[in-house]
Amino acid sequence: MRIAMLSVHSSPVGHLGNRDTGGMSVYIRELAREFGRRGHGVDIFTRRQDPEAPQVVHLYPGARLFHLGDNVMEPYGPMAVFPHLPDFLRDLERFKTTHGLQYHVMHSHYWLSGRLGTWAASRWRIPHLFTFHTVGALKNLYCEEEREPSLRVRIERQIAMEVDRVIAATE
Fold first, then answer.
1. Distance between alpha carbon 127 and the CA centroid of its chain, in Å?
2. 165-166 and 2-6 as β-strands: parallel, antiparallel, unpaired?
3. Where are the beta strands (DSSP E) in 40-134?
4. Taking a C-beta distance cutoff of 8 angstroms, is the pair 46, 8 a contact?
5. Total H helices, total E strands in the chain
6. Do the Cβ atoms of 136 and 118 come closer than 8 Å?
7. Which of 25, 80, 138, 143 has the maximal Cβ count within 10 Å?
């Protein structure tokens, strides 16, 4: 099976430990490694955050990471990335077409990638799996000092209604 993974906000090969690169990045890398170990092909798409980073990174057997976009976007926060999602979709479509890539399933991570994934999976006519990692409405309920914007909460609700499956990394 060929799997397209989206991690727009945070690169799975970013420097761990900063605010926007942590457990989700490790999770995505390890999931891609395990899928590759089981004989599936995984292409992870993330946005270019380092102008020196190669466009293609071979992570593990069967697992590759692609940096898309011509510009390094700063600041790295999700709300700064959100308006660029249509550009990222254009770059993703162009890359897929140019390289003749086909996928059986889309797996997106976090709300930004989920929004992008709903657009791409619909165009590609493939199932879309989504992993929240955190949920904005729950953060707002329990973490008053770190309020999430209403845009995120609204989009997460839409994503949950549009995807084929929500993946929960828990029993």
1. 15
2. unpaired
3. 41-47, 56-60, 63-68, 105-109, 128-131
4. yes
5. 6, 7
6. no
7. 25
Query: Both tokens of residue 39?
Result: 């004989």
Q: Is residue 59 a contact partner of residue 30, using CB atoms and an 8 Å limit?
A: no
pLDDT > 90 fraction of the chain, expressed in percent and rounded: 61
Q: What is the pLDDT of residues 19-53, one digit of tens each?
A: 555 578 889 999 999 999 999 999 999 988 777 88
* Cβ neighbour number for residue 21 with a 10 Å cutoff: 19
169: tokens are 């990394």
Yes or no: say if 108 and 114 are a contact pair by the CB < 8 Å rule. Answer: yes
User: Residue 40 corresponds to which tokens in the numbers above?
Assistant: 């599936």
C-beta atoms surrounding 5 within 10 Å: 26
Contacts 24+ apart (CB under 8 A), 24-28: 24/109, 24/110, 24/133, 27/109, 27/131, 27/133, 27/169, 28/109
Rounded distance between C-alpha atoms, residue 150 and residue 62, angstroms: 38
